[in-house]
């Protein structure tokens, strides 16, 4: 089965972290995730995450660090999820695809109902 490469960003708003909830009509409905999306043909990982964040959230970010990618097999597709730590730079946050968002303390994140592929990323981030 083909593996889909997806970037996502753990975005700091000062001391809070942004989590977003997938809408009912998306794949993995109502699961929480870090905003991001699929890498387009010929696009770099960094260009992808900046583009996806602008498209989905209407904000600019500064990418700080790449964490360890996670390969995860869902029942009907397989993804390689590439996480970045980033900082909010500018723009008014608007949800263009997701149904809700949360600005949470790092230690509150684990309580959300995450997309499965995010769990190893969350663990690595919490232990940083
Ligand atoms: N953006 C993002 N996607 C994630 C995360 N965890 C996770 O399993 N995914 C999955 C959900 C999607 O199937 C895929 C990302 O593609 P996408 O954001 O373009 O999702 P999409 O709903 O447009 O997908 P599709 O319907 O076009 O197939 O990766 C995450 O933390 N962030």
UniProtKB/TrEMBL annotation:
It catalyses: 8-oxo-GTP + H2O = 8-oxo-GMP + diphosphate + H(+); 8-oxo-dGTP + H2O = 8-oxo-dGMP + diphosphate + H(+). The gene is mutT. It holds the Pfam family NUDIX. The keyword Metal-binding applies. Keywords: DNA damage, DNA repair, DNA replication, Hydrolase, Magnesium, Metal-binding, Mutator protein. This is 8-oxo-dGTP diphosphatase. PANTHER family: 8-OXO-DGTP DIPHOSPHATASE, NUDIX HYDROLASE FAMILY PROTEIN. Residues 1-127 form the Nudix hydrolase domain. Its EC number is 3.6.1.55. Its cofactor is Mg(2+). Belongs to the Nudix hydrolase family.
